[in-house]
Amino acid sequence: MGPPSKTSHLRLLQLSTGHVERVNSVILLGINLDADFSWKFHVEAITSKATQRLYFLKQLRRAGVPQALLHFYTAVIRSVLDYAAPVWNPAYQNTD
């Protein structure tokens, strides 16, 4: 059995259809939230996605297609990094 939940002291939420399962993390609209509202889980997830996509950027560079590099980065990699950025950093602007 794993470590006790950070919210184990809270009562279970009960609906007419039964209890609501308690989880330590959830993905909601692409935002990875954990029980203590730290951004560690979310940052690890988007870093992993961006790293996987960097491989294809390297392949484009090796193939000698320089005009596609910026478009690929902006559309495929930066979009992952920027997704919902104002949620975890309200000072973030699209021009940043």
Count of DSSP-assigned helices: 3
The description of the largest β-sheet is: 2 strands, antiparallel
Beta-strand proportion: 5-15%
Structural class: alpha+beta
Total tally of structural domains: 1
List the secondary-structure elements in sequence, H or E.
EEEEHHH
Strands of the largest sheet, in order across it? 1-2
Shape verdict = elongated
Mean pLDDT: 77
Using DSSP, what is the number of strands? 4
* Measured distance between first and last alpha carbons: 45 Å
Given as residue ranges, the uncertain stretches (5+ residues, pLDDT < 50) are none
Please give the radius of gyration in angstroms: 19 Å
Helix content: 40-55%
In short:
By secondary structure, this protein is α+β, with helices and mostly antiparallel strands. The chain has one domain.
What does this structure look like?
The chain is of the alpha+beta class and 96 residues long. It has one domain. Helices cover 46% and strands 12% of the residues. The chain contains three helices and four strands. It has helices at 40-62, 66-82, 85-88; strands at residues 14-15, 18-19, 25-28, 31-34. Strand 3 and strand 4 (31-34) form a beta hairpin. The longest helix is centred in the middle third of the chain and has 23 residues, at 40-62. The mean pLDDT is 77.
